[in-house]
Write a structure and sequence with these properties.
Elements (H helix, E strand, L loop, with lengths): L6 H9 L6 H17 L3 H5 L4 H17 L8 H16 L2 H24 L1
Length: 118
């Protein structure tokens, strides 16, 4: 799963039925067509979308992202995912949280490797 600004779009597209790369080509073609016909006026057209609707869409995608860790319940990975989330909230920096999570996962795997050799 990509962890970037595009991951919300990917989640939304997948949730609404997009399963192949052709979906990106279709929506890209629609955007190019709208830009071709409306030009600079597209900014005004997009301003017609209510901020409340955009907020609901972002909240929906956020909830779908939260459901991604449901596969980890009962595993040590779930605890690590929660810890990364807590670090991200307190530091307000996803890079720090990701780096900390990677270090913890490497330590966990290394300790299992050492214990397995004993």
């Amino acid at each position: 799963m990509p962890i970037c600004h595009g991951s919300g779009g990917l989640t939304a597209h997948y949730s609404f039925g997009a399963r192949t790369g052709i979906a990106c080509i279709i929506i890209g073609s629609i955007y190019i067509g709208l830009a071709f016909f409306f030009g600079k006026g597209m900014g005004e057209i997009f301003k017609l979308i209510s901020p409340a609707i955009l907020g609901i869409m972002v909240m929906y995608v956020g909830l779908k992202h939260c459901l991604l860790i449901s596969d980890l319940i009962g595993e040590k990975g779930f605890l690590l995912a929660c810890l990364i989330g807590i670090i991200a909230v307190f530091t307000n920096n996803l890079a720090i949280a990701c780096g900390f999570g990677m270090i913890l996962e490497w330590i966990r795997r290394y300790s299992q490797l050492v214990i397995g050799r004993s």
